[in-house]
């Protein structure tokens, strides 16, 4: 969670820097300088920087890309996300310069994620198919689920597993029960946390819009 915490702070600072100071100018130069600095400072920070600039680009450019291009980018993105070591279908990655080898996984995974996001947001057909009620709901609770599932596993799920083992229940049956308990409890906790997150984001957006409006009035 350390990387996520500092990454979130960087996203907020970058958003202010891009909108208030740069006023959406010189984005390419800013991206190159800031992303290189982030990459060599901390691998985990780079994706947050790349994601922020991609978000700005998508907000300012509403151009549609063809459906087949979108699908190709999604497939390419998934391929990039599969990289672990430069072997077999990823043998080409061994040609990356030595100075960048330690950052290879971060670079390729970030590129893959960016391709998928760009492809999804730049084609309405793909976007609408992935923006249905079910998938949108899963997306809304994904982050709260990420936050609570470890706590559930280390507390209630572990307790249930120990109790079932003490009663002589087989390991397979115990794991099935524990999976059900973990899934249902995690979702039950993630839903209200998701609603709180929605409320909190609305509060932050309201304050931000007010500050930006005041700045415009001053100028």
UniProtKB/TrEMBL annotation:
InterPro entries, per database record: Acyl_transf_3_dom
Transmembrane in keyword set: yes
A Pfam family per the record: Acyl_transf_3
Domain of life per record: Bacteria
Domain Acyltransferase positions: 6-191
Transmembrane segments annotated in the record for this chain: 6-27, 65-85, 106-123, 143-162, 174-193
Identification of the protein by name: Acyltransferase 3 domain-containing protein
Gene source species: Pseudomonas fluorescens
């Amino acid at each position: 969670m350390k990387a996520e915490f500092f990454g979130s702070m960087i996203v907020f600072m970058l958003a202010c820097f891009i909108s208030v100071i740069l006023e959406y100018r010189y984005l390419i130069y800013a991206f190159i300088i800031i992303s290189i600095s982030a990459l060599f400072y901390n691998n985990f920070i780079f994706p947050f920087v790349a994601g922020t600039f991609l978000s700005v680009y998508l907000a300012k450019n509403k151009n549609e890309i063809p459906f087949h291009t979108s699908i190709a980018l999604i497939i390419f993105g998934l391929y990039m996300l599969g990289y672990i070591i430069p072997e077999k279908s990823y043998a080409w990655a061994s040609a990356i310069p030595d100075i960048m080898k330690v950052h290879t996984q971060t670079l390729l995974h970030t590129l893959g994620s960016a391709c998928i996001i760009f492809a999804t947001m730049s084609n309405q057909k793909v976007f609408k198919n992935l923006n249905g009620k079910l998938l949108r709901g899963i997306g809304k609770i994904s982050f709260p689920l990420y936050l609570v599932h470890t706590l559930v596993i280390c507390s209630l799920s572990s307790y249930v597993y120990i109790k079932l083992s003490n009663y002589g229940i087989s390991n397979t049956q115990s794991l099935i029960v524990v999976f059900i308990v973990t899934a249902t409890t995690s979702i039950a906790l993630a839903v209200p946390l998701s609603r709180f997150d929605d409320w909190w984001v609305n509060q932050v957006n309201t304050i931000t819009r007010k500050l930006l409006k005041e700045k415009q009035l001053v100028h």
